[in-house]
Amino acid sequence: MVEIVEVIKINNDNSVEVACPATVCKGCSGSMFCNIKGKTFSAKFDKDFEKINIGDKLKIYLPPARTISTSFITLMIPLLMFPIFFMLFPSSKEAYKFLAGISGIIIGFIGVGIYFYFSKSKYYPKVIEKITD
Known about the structure:
Blueprint: E1 2-10, E2 15-19, H1 22-26, E3 41-44, E4 57-61, H2 64-86, H3 94-118, E5 126-131
Antiparallel strand pairs: 1-2, 1-4, 2-3, 4-5
Helix pairs in contact: 2-3
């Protein structure tokens, strides 16, 4: 998936903070459900990429496999933790088993958050082109 973004900040680690330009949202049919409006995110570029300045428009590539795997990890790991924690208390009351399952979901989300905190650069979109007006 290729998206057009605008550079907000240039980082020292060959990455840039980008945001979707407001003009893109006007023609988008999914703008009502969008959770990206007003948010920034990071994108990586190669060391030999041409000079990037704040305000430049870039094309970034979001690999569909990584996008799907990110969603899968974020949602399925906590969901799979529920039955695991639920079964840890086989002879307890149902209320305790349910609370254990809910705590498994919470621990799953915390674990996923820690995983993405330390491996977030692996999931960054890649800058493929600088758009010149």
